[in-house]
Amino acid sequence: MHQYPELGFMEYYTTYVIGEELKKLGFTVYCGKEALKSDARYGVPPESERAENEKRAKAMGVPEDWMTAMHGGHTGIVAVYDTERSGDHLAFRFDIDALPIEEAEQDKHVPFKESFISKNKGVMHACAHDGHTSIGIGLAQFIAQHQNTLNGKFTLLFQPAEEGGRGARAMTEKGWLTGVDAFYSGHIGIQSLPVGTIAATTKGFLASSKLNVHFKGQSSHSGMKPEAGRNALLAAATAATQLHSISRHSEGVSRINVGKLIAGNGRNIISDRGYLELETRGETQNINEYMQMEARRILEAAAAMHHVDVEIDFVGETEELRCDELLIPSITNACQTSDLIQNVEPYALVSGSEDASFMMNEVQKQGGKATYMLFGTHLPDNHHSPHFDFEEEVLAVALDAYIHIVKGGNEIA
Questions:
Q1: Is 384 annotated as belonging to a binding site?
Q2: N or C, which end of the chain is more exposed by having fewer CB within 10 Å?
C-alpha cells in the first residue's frame, strides 16, 4: 500500500485492491455512491485532477466496472458481514488516503532504503493510513476465518479523504452507523510510544474547519501604471500574517494555520490573484466557530484594504469528539490475553483533529459507545513529514487489539 499512495477522493487503485480482497473473504461490499453520500463530500478535487488520476488507475489495471462505480471521486469501501446470529453490531473505521508530500530519498528513510518508496511522485503515505488499511484487511480476514463462531454484525468502513476532514461525513450521512452498538477507530503513532503499548481512548482532539481562499484583483504594469492595479498578492500576504494574530480563546485550546500561499505573475506585474489554504481548530465547536469567524473577518478586511475581491470556500471540517470511558475496562480486559500487547493505557493525549468524529458522534447520539485508540510505535520523524515512518511490528499489535475486542464479545477458542 505504501508504494501506491493516492490523495483524497482519488484513491481509485486503493479502493479496488481493498474491495477485491474483501469480496474474496465473503463480505458484502459497497462502493461508489452506494458507500457514501455524494453531496456530503467536502473539498472534492477538480475534474481535471480526478481525470488524471482515473487515467493512472486504469493504466494500473483497475477494471472498467470499478472505475465506473468510482467515477467523479466516489472512492472508499464499506464492507458488511452479518452472521445472522444475535449479537452486537460492531463498526471499525480505517482511513485510506495519502498526502501531497514528496517522499524522502535518503538511506535513513526505511521505505527508500528497502525499495518500497512511493511510486506516485509528490504523493506519500506520511500519516500511516497505508498501515491502517492493512490492519483493516487483516481484521476482515479474521472475521471471515471465524465466521462460524462469531455472533452479530460487523461493518468495516474504509474511508476516503480523511486528510482535511472531507470524507467521514459522506459515509456517516449514508446511514452506515445506524444501529451500531460500538464503534472503534484508531491511529498508528501520533505519540512516540513503545510497540506493544496501546491507548484505549484519546483526549484532546479538536474541532476544525478548512478554508480555501481566492483573492481576485487587477493586473497592471508595475512601472508604467501601478495605480491601475489591485494587488491580490499583497492581500493574500496581509491575510496570511494577520490570521496568525487572532486572539486565543479563554475557554480552551485554539489553533490556526495558513498552510499554502500561491500568488503572483512576474516581478513587473501587479498580481491579480492570490490563493490561500488555511485551517482553524478549537477544543470545542464554539471555540472553533470563534476562530473561523475571526479568520473570515480578517480575510475580508485584507481584501478591502487592497481593494480586491475575495471568495472563501468551506472545504472540510471535523467535530469535537469524546471517547466513551466505559469502553476502557472492556478493551483492557479483552487485551489481557494478547501475546503482543504489553500495556494498555486508559487514554493518550493528542491535539490534532479527526473526521471520525462524525461517525463517533452519530453512534453516541443513538446510544452506542465509541472510542478512538492509539497504537504505539517509535516515530523517526513527525507525521506529515517526508521522512515519516513507523515500526511495522505495530501492525500486528493493532490488529491483535481489534481481534481481541471482537473476541471479547464472542466465544472463540
A1: yes
A2: C
168-207 pLDDT per residue, tens? 999 999 999 999 999 999 999 998 999 999 999 999 999 9
Model confidence pLDDT, tens digit, residues 220-239:
999 999 999 999 999 999 99
Domain 12-204+321-408 top-level CATH class? alpha beta
Q: Where are the domains of the chain?
A: 12-204+321-408, 207-317
Q: CA 393 to CA 399: how far, in whole Å? A: 10
- Mention every residue, 6+ apart, whose C-beta is less than 8 A from residue 406: 90, 139, 142, 143, 150, 154, 412
Pairing of strands 202-203, 89-95: unpaired
Cβ-proximal residues to 168 (8 Å cutoff; 6+ apart), any chain: 93, 159, 162, 318, 355, 356, 357, 358, 359
Classified by CATH at the fold level, domain 207-317 comes out as Alpha-Beta Plaits (3.30.70)
Domains 12-204+321-408 and 207-317 belong to one CATH topology: no
Torsion of CA 402, 185, 385, 171, to 10 degrees: 130
User: 172 in helix, strand or coil?
Assistant: helix
Query: Among 194, 117, 205, which Cα is nearest to 162's?
Result: 205
Q: What digits encode the pLDDT tens for the residues 254-307?
A: 999 999 999 999 999 999 999 999 999 999 999 999 999 999 999 999 999 999
**103 annotated among ligand-binding-site residues:** no
Q: Are 81 and 147 in contact (CB under 8 A)?
A: yes
Q: Is 163 assigned a ligand-binding role in the annotation?
A: yes
State how far the Cα of 97 lies from the Cα of 127, in Å rounded to an integer.
Answer: 9
Instruction: State the pTM of this model.
Output: 0.93
DSSP bridge partners of 80? 28, 155
Q: Do the annotations mark residue 127 as ligand-binding? A: yes
Closest CA to 127 of 40, 13, 20, 1: 1
Give the Å distances, CA to CA, from 95 to 1, 44, 400.
Answer: 12, 16, 18
Residue 2 annotated as part of some ligand binding site: no
**What does the pLDDT look like over 96-122, one tens digit per residue?**
999 999 999 999 999 999 999 999 999
